[in-house]
Amino acid sequence: MTAPERLFIGGVWTEPDGGHYEVIDPATEEVVGLAPEASREQVHEAASAARAAFPAWSRTPPQRRAAILDRAAEVMQRDVAAHAELAQAESGATTGTARGMQVAVGVARFRRYAKGALEPVEQGLPPQINEAGPMGKAGVLGALAVRQPVGVVTCITSYNNPWANPAGKIAPALAMGNTVVVKPAPQDPLSVYRMAAALAEAGAPPGVVNIVSGASPEVGAAAVDAPDVDMVSFTGSTAVGQRIAEVCGRGMKRQLMELGGKGAALVFDDADLDSAAAGIGTTYSFYSGQICTAPTRVIAQRGVYDALVERLTRYLGRLTVGDPRAPGTVVGPVISAAHRDRIESYVELGRKEGARVVAGGERPSALERGFYVAPTLLADCTRDMRVVREEIFGPVVVVLPFDEEDEGIALANDSDYGLIDYVWSGDIARAFRVARQLRAGGVGVNTVGRNMEAPFGGFKKSGVGRDVGSYALHAYSELQSIVWPG
C-alpha cells in the first residue's frame, strides 16, 4: 500500500481536512492506498490559489509553458513502470492497457500540448471598408481574432483512465495559459497526484496546478461552484453533467462536457464481418467495456445478422477474463462492486425484456475475489428495450436487426446519445453517405480507430464542445477581437 496522499494546493502538499479514504484494487479487493478527502473550504482555497497564479502564468511566454510541459512529460516517462503499476492497481486495467493506453497516452498528450503552446493564437481578418456614417468617417478597419485563456479551469476526470483523461484536460489548459483545479474520480485519484508531482518537478509555478480529491460529492460540487472558477471541463455521466451545467449556467461559466455514449455499429450486408466483429469486440476487451466510445449497440442488416452474432460469439470465446496482471488476460475487472452489480442488473433486465443471452450473463465462477463481469452478448433486441436505450458502461453488447438503409439509420439515431457511431460496409460511398446522416460527434468507417487530431465530442446528451488536437486549445480559450483603423 502506498503512503497516505496529500492534497496539492498552491504548490504545497497539504493535509486534508476530511482525513483519508481507501482506494481499492478492483482485481484483488485490497487497499491500494489512502486518498485525501478535501473539505469544501480547501477546494475553494485551491481555486483561489489558481486565481492568484493566473495573471503571471497567462503572461508566461509560450516557449516557457512548452518547456515545462515537455519536461513534465520526461519526468512522467522516467517513472513509467511505477506509474503503470499504480494505475493498474487503481483501475484494474490489464498490464498492456496500463502501460500503453493509460500512462503512455498521458505522456504523449503532454508532449502534444507542449507543441500546442507554440501554435499561433492570432488570426488576421480581411480589412473592411466602411462608408461614412453615424459610426464615423469613411475608412478601412483592420481586425485580429486572438485566442485568450479562459482563466481558472476545474477539470473533473473519469475513472476509466486515470492518466489519459486528466492529461487531455490539464495539458491543453496549461498550454493556453489557464490555471487548473483538478478533481480526480474518487475511485482512482492517486495517479493524478503523481502527475502533479511531475509538473511541480518540471517547474510549474505554485498555484498553476492544484489537485483536490474526495469520495464525497461535495468535493466535486465545490470545485464547480467555487467563485474563482471560470470554466468546468467534465468527463462522466450525462446525469452528473446536467447537474454541473445547471450550476455553470447560473454563474455563466464556460463548459466542456464529454458525457455518456451508446455507440451504434451499423453493419451492412456487404461488410467484412471479421473486421466488424473484431471492432465491436473491443467493447469487451477495452477497459472491460467502461468506455463511452464503445460500439455497444450493434444494428445488423438482416442478411448478415445471424453470421455476425455467430462471429461475435466466437470472439467472446477467445477472451481470457481474470487477473489483469497475468499474461494473456484480455478482460480485467470493472471498477467497483457497485458497478459490477449495476451491470449484472442490466443483463438480468435484458432477459426479462426478451433479449436472448447468447454468451456470458453469469459472474465468472472461478474468480473468488475482484469485481469481474462476464463479457455478455444479448441478441434479438428491440429498440424499446432499456438495455438498448441506456448506457450500461460495461462489457455488454446488444444486437438488433434492420432491413433497409433508412431503417438502419433511423435505429442508430433513435438514442438520447450521440458520441461516436460506426459503419461497416464494403461500399465506401454508401458508408460515407450513411455517416453524414448519423447524429453523432464522430463516425468510424470500417474502423474503431481514432485520429487524435480530429475533433472529439458529442451530439445530444453526449456532451457540449469539442477537444483533442488543436480543438482542445480552442476549447480552453476565449476569442477576443481587436479592431483598428487602416
UniProtKB/TrEMBL annotation:
Q: InterPro entries given for it? A: Ald_DH/histidinol_DH (IPR016161), Ald_DH_C (IPR016163), Ald_DH_N (IPR016162), Aldehyde_DH_dom (IPR015590)
Q: Which residues form the signal peptide?
A: none
The family line of this record is:
Belongs to the aldehyde dehydrogenase family.
Highest taxon of the lineage: Bacteria
Q: What's the source species for this entry?
A: Streptomyces tubercidicus
Q: Which Pfam families match?
A: Aldedh
Q: What is this protein called?
A: Aldehyde dehydrogenase
Keyword Cytoplasm found: no
Top-down, what is the taxonomic lineage of the species of origin? Answer: Bacteria, Bacillati, Actinomycetota, Actinomycetes, Kitasatosporales
The keyword Cell inner membrane appears for this protein: no
Annotated Aldehyde dehydrogenase domain residues: 13-482
Q: Which UniProt keywords apply?
A: Oxidoreductase
Q: Which GO terms describe its molecular function?
A: oxidoreductase activity, acting on the aldehyde or oxo group of donors, NAD or NADP as acceptor
Q: What Gene3D superfamilies does the database record attribute to this sequence?
A: Aldehyde Dehydrogenase, Chain A, domain 1 (3.40.605.10), Aldehyde Dehydrogenase, Chain A, domain 2 (3.40.309.10)
